[in-house]
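Section 5.1 Outputs to date
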Amino acid sequence: MPCAVPCDVLPCSKRCERLLECGHQCPSVCGEQCPRKELCQVPECGAPEHLDAVVDFVCMETYKEIDLDTNPIIRLSCGHFFCMDTVDGLMQMTDVYEYDKDGNLVGQKPQSAWIEAIQQSQTRCPSCRRPISNISRYNRVTKGVMIEALNKKFLAMAHESFLSLEKEVSDVERDLHESRNTLEVDIQSALTGVARGGKNQKKSIPSWCQSRHATMNYLAGKALGFVEATAKEEQPYGRIHTLVADCIRRKRVADASYTVDDISFSPRYGLEGEVLVLRVHWARLYDLLQILELPPVVSRPTDAKSLIRNILKPLKDLKEMCKRLEKNAEEALYPRQQVEAILFHARFVGLELNLPDLTPPVAEPVLNQTTIQAAVSGRDPEEAQMVLEAVREQAREQARERSRAQNERREQKVQETRTRERDSLDEALKICRQKPGSTRGLEALVEEAQKMMRESVFYSPVTTDEQRAVYEAMRSELRGTGHWYYCVNRHPVS
């Protein structure tokens, strides 16, 4: 296995069979480095201060009194030594491994069952308090603790990065909201052109919108980068998985048994990052919707159609992202992100349903030459003209019928979509009421979304006071790498 990976081989508890330089059998345990002859238990070889040292903290026996065949010694990197049972007790080996009735190691326990207890326990030399390390027998414990410490550091850094990014998003949402009072004036200035340095600054409305939303687009990319940086593969345990998989591939190991529990990974910040991506896109699309209703835009159908296309273009991918986020949050037991995914999906659907239809109206049917010839053949001009007009009217009626059928199907689809979204929002409201602590500040937003689906009323995407209080409370969480705990769902808390 790679150096950073906790060993998956069960440690041996037998006495080492090698000989010391004095010719006597090694007093240490199998698999560990043999000590110098000063630690020999034979009085003629061993140093008196070592022979009289207490090495068994259970029976308080000295080195010269213990039976090395049943309880060999382990020499720590600091130079102190103790019997195997004593150090095993310090390292809580019964929490890490499965034992049979005779006290033999027979299997491993999942890391999630013991890692937190080991971290908070005494894994230091009883004499000098130096950390116990570089002992092959305790490789799984010491490296497991090290990786867990790295994991906590990773989560703390992700936490700080998320809060910083969330503040940027909130600030931009607020700036967009406050600038809407001057939208019409700003658009008129862009259309008429404002001289700066003697240059013509005229812009089309779509171009002006692109400049207005440059920061939003930048934050959307930054939020996606945050999601990628906190993905499962980038977390310490994910990197361990990658190292093991690469080792197995290179060495063609067919019976590798090392695994990392999926519970060791934290999906929280990936989910939070996806919520920020959706927030940024919703703020931008809502702003475009407000711009679309302004008189300067309404009076320019070409620009209005361009803005509608800009709104419609990302909606399919965003709705798919919402559904994916909802599923992942539900599986990871994060109700807040699950509710937010439902909320944003409903908003995007409501936006799509209330946009003007860009489908061109039914055109005047054009009769082909064969139909015209069949209608006028063998008839005088006046009769032929009447028959031809009747054929045209029949074609128009067929076109109107197709249009009516198409509109009915579209309306039926719209009603089915609204019903489906209302059911999802009802489920979101149920989650909010079942878990008010986890979903604080979301119940009112769900009710607003329900009203939106009923009345097509859209609300400005500005962080509410209650939501802002939630994010402020998060700033005191997960500080540093100590005194962390895990809830029953294995979510880190501090």
